[in-house]
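I had to read the description of the data format several times before I understood it. The format is easy to grasp once an entry is in front of the reader. For illustration, here is how one protein appears when written out as sequence plus structure tokens:
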Amino acid sequence: MLSDLASVLTENMILNPERYGFMLVISEAFTNALLHGNQLNPTKNIYLHVVIKPNQLTADIIDEGELGLQQIQTKKPSELYAANGRGVDLIRHYSTSASFSEAENGGTKVSIVLERKLEKIT
């Protein structure tokens, strides 16, 4: 998934630091969907929808798990140097906005927005 995302970002000339932040939050959301949402069940899917606009990057990551939204809502703040448990915090930190909701399929939907800082040519 990450190599496909990197290719799409390269094709659209999305460079660092936007590229790094966007890939980081998608990677964290995808990992959470795989581990916590789908419980590593190989028969369950994770859907990724990315939109690239001149002024923003958006992504929706949707799993097919159960109770993922409840886990996010009851999550305690992570420790700074903890080995695990910082994914949601990283998503919130590096995104302009991040929302967590129940998907139509009953899974968890993570919606991420990263505002782009375009340089004005004068």
About this structure: The longest strand covers residues 108-115.
